[in-house]
Amino acid sequence: GFHHGQFMDRLQHAINLQTKVMADQAIRLEAAQKALMATELRLSSLNKVVEARRRGASTDEAIAAAAAEAGLAEARALPVDTPIGQRIGVVAVLNAQGRGQLQALGKRGLSRALRAALSDALEPVALPRRWRFADTLPLNPQGKTTDAALRALEGPWEDAGFDNTLKAIPE
Q1: What is the pLDDT of residues 81-127, one digit of tens each?
Q2: pTM for the full model?
Q3: Spatial separation of the C-alpha atoms in residues 105 and 111, rounded to whole Å
């Protein structure tokens, strides 16, 4: 009688404690899962940023390499707003060979020749579509060339068109 009732009370108490512990664990587990998901999301967006930076850097490197053989003294890639969305633009400073090509081919022809020279080094999506030729790259007071300074240069962007061939197209 009495002992049995006492035992059942204790048992019920132990069950209640266990149930509370289990509920606490479930709450903690859910919180941990949420934290993990948030972390994975942050990691994923960080990876996208790193990847975009890496693409930008590799575009600059590929341009520098192809540029030398194509007649560029210096070149800088930057995102450019166009009527069809953002495209990669390049501000280029020509060396003597490049200036000769500019005379021979014109801006459109030289833009296409440079684009073709880069097509081995870059994915099609990374190929610059817009070109601007400058005597020097603009420097800010800290001696850096910024995208804003590049965008502020006078003169139109030359559209290199969408094909990689050098066949003449009507202007």
Answers
A1: 888 888 888 898 998 888 998 999 998 888 888 888 888 777 787 78
A2: 0.56
A3: 9
CB burial of 94-115 (b: ≥16 within 10 Å; e: otherwise) equals bbeebeebbeeeebbbbbbbbb
Q: Which residue type, as a one-letter code, is found at position 66?
A: A
Lowest-confidence range among 36-40, 46-50, 132-136, 148-152? 46-50
| Structural contact between residues 114 and 96, judged by C-beta atoms closer than 8 angstroms | no
Query: Can you read off the two tokens belonging to residue 160?
Result: 């290199």
Cα 133–Cα 136–Cα 141 angle in degrees, nearest 5:
130
Question: For 71, left (φ over 0), alpha (ψ -120 to 50), or beta?
Answer: left
